[in-house]
Amino acid sequence: MRAECTKRRNPCQNAKLTVVGSLRYRAFPFEVTHSKSMKTEKISELTTNRLSVYLRCLNELAASGVEAVSSKSMAEQFNLNSAQIRKDLAYFGEFGVRGVGYNVEELRTHLAKILGLTVKRKVAIVGLGNLGTALANYHGFNQSNFEVVGLFDDDPAKLGNRTRAGLRIQSTQTLTDAIHREGIEIVVIAVPANAAERVLEQVTEAGVRAVLNFAPVHLNPKAGVKVKNVDLTISLESLSYFLANPSSEAINIGYREFLRQDTANNGTTR
């Protein structure tokens, strides 16, 4: 969905002088409004996935003290596509200054708002086997504004145990109450395949609308609920396919580069 840029009244009054290296430009404050005459386009999941990648790249740039970056330099540094960056951002508004690029801090703020990361999202993990326990001990959630507030399992031997983060494992019988009490918005399912559907029904009945499913079964939620199915075995089998088919376009670029270097070094190919 494209957007029109509407400047505020008397924009020069609040224009901010930005200095990037030897470049000076004035960034005029603006509000992004969506044109009623333009068609509403459904934003694909691939697009939102790329926004997360862009945000991670911008975080790295900000940590390095970079104030402004062009789509071209960003693409070159992080192995991205500059045209794709501009196209993806255009769905949500008009960003950047022609000839200078994007203000890193401002774009970070915009992307965080678009991805709903300006508020902390509370997460519960159901199933504390090896995978669930590893997820419970993962520190990266907090860095992205996700807070794991509940751990649940059916195994009596695990109930009451605590993870390295200090969270106590509770019975799944208390899951519905915990969702309401803690305001849990996202549930991670890491249970065996035969229990996944039951857990999905339980959490969605409690009002959860976002589920990350690691169980080896494809879950089909009711309307208004978003489920992301992550099947590690399928991912590994996909990689195995490409290893078994070295002529595949997915890996032949690296394979051709290997042959080119081998020829240059030895004068022959294997």
Describe it for me?
The chain is α/β, with parallel strands linked by helices and 270 residues long. The protein has helices spanning 45-63, 71-78, 82-90, 104-114, 130-136, 140-143, 175-182, 193-205, 232-244, 252-266; strands spanning 4-7, 16-20, 23-27, 30-33, 68-69, 102-103, 121-126, 146-153, 169-171, 186-189, 210-213, 226-229. It is 40% helix and 19% strand. The chain has a 6-stranded parallel sheet with strand order 9-8-7-10-11-12, sandwiched between helices. Strands 1-4 form a two-stranded antiparallel ribbon. It has a two-stranded antiparallel sheet with strand order 2-3. Helix 2 packs across helix 3 (82-90). The relative contact order is 0.08. Mean pLDDT is 82; it is low at 1-40 and 263-270.
How are the SSEs ordered, and which strands pair?
Blueprint: E1 4-7, E2 16-20, E3 23-27, E4 30-33, H1 45-63, E5 68-69, H2 71-78, H3 82-90, E6 102-103, H4 104-114, E7 121-126, H5 130-136, H6 140-143, E8 146-153, E9 169-171, H7 175-182, E10 186-189, H8 193-205, E11 210-213, E12 226-229, H9 232-244, H10 252-266
Parallel strand pairs: 7-8, 7-10, 8-9, 10-11, 11-12
Antiparallel strand pairs: 1-4, 2-3, 5-6
Give short descriptive properties of this protein.
alpha/beta, Arc Repressor Mutant, subunit A, Rossmann fold, 6-stranded parallel beta sheet, 40% helix, globular, disordered C terminus
